[in-house]
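Problem 12. The chain below contains 408 residues. Write out its predicted structure in token notation.
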Amino acid sequence: MSDGAISQDEIDALLSGVDMGGLGSAGFPPSKSNEKQLNTAPLAEFSSEAASVLADSLTTMTGTTFTVGAPVVEQVNRDQLLRKIPEMIVGVTADFSEGLSGDHLFLLAPEFAQKLAGLINKEDSPELDDMALSVISEIVSQHSGSEITKLSQTGKFPGLNSNPAEAVHVPKAMVRYPSNTFILISYPVTTDGGVFTFWEAIAKDAASLIIGALGGSDDLDIGGGLSAAEMQQMTGMAGGMGLKQGMNGMGMQGMGAMNGMGMQGMGNMQGAMNGMGMQNMGMQGMNGMGMQGMSGGMMGMNVPNVQALQYPNLQQGISSMEQGNIGLIMDVYMEMTVELGRTKKQIKEILGMGEGTIIELDKLAGEPVDILVNHKPIAKGEVVVIDENFGVRVTEILSPIERVSDLR
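Solution.
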């Protein structure tokens, strides 16, 4: 009997927003998506060429042979991607910034990221610290740069560029994924007997423009609507009351009699029908009515207008959930440092330092000092003395653009 405690697997599932049974809410399977499906064939060909470049790049940077198999290109949503990736993930954002706009995200399992960082830094079991994450960012920059070069050759995206790659090692629920559905490219990577996956996610709007630039069709197939087979199946529903089957055998002779019936005869028909038992009104008696004779009568029938169901945009709800997850880490400690200044010295100068050596920094007297959180600059301030202790008074908060540029 359960003691009411929640397991670690259930906690992880709640944090990631994925139902434990892999189903939608209330235990029902997710409904058929109404998102328009992109023609991914041009992207599949494009990513196959990128896979070869990725293998060469990894081999060159690590000194170890890497092979990248045929990538899988599919259109997915956030929940579908969350089911594919591990609970902890290394996410690298390299969003398109010029010539093309949209989210551009790369994902690696922590084991894969450690493998790459260890080979490049010549370490056996490296931690995923800032140094290791900067290595992963450089790998993604190389891959993204090769893609941008290839796309620029199409002439469709003048000045195409992307933001500097920024890697983080966080729970998968905290990664910023593209909204709604998006294109996911999965590269199978093999080295030293190990098999890993290198995921690349591209926002749907950006992917659509890329497909067009690669010569793909702009036509989109609408998902979620009724197919021709489904429409035909609906015509045979409602038990034995199918119109098509029930009116198979009414010949033109019977319809001719009706054509010669005037308004006066309609009164006699009403009397005859009043005396007709319900047994003779069964749909079985309509088996003699042919579809050919129904061509004139169908003009008066109300044909239902079948349209694809439009689902509301649920992106706002996802954002709210992600915002709520941030509250779970509000009490986590982070290292804050104040940097007085920096300089570069040759090794022989550093070895020649001794007591009394004066080191000249790149800061002028009275110039604000840099305030960093986990070695990332976020603000500027001035040094103050509080009860014989040094402190810093914040004078400026860096803008998001300045913070991104300093991460490179």
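Discussion. The radius of gyration is 34 Å. Students who got a different answer should revisit the alignment rule from Section 12.3.
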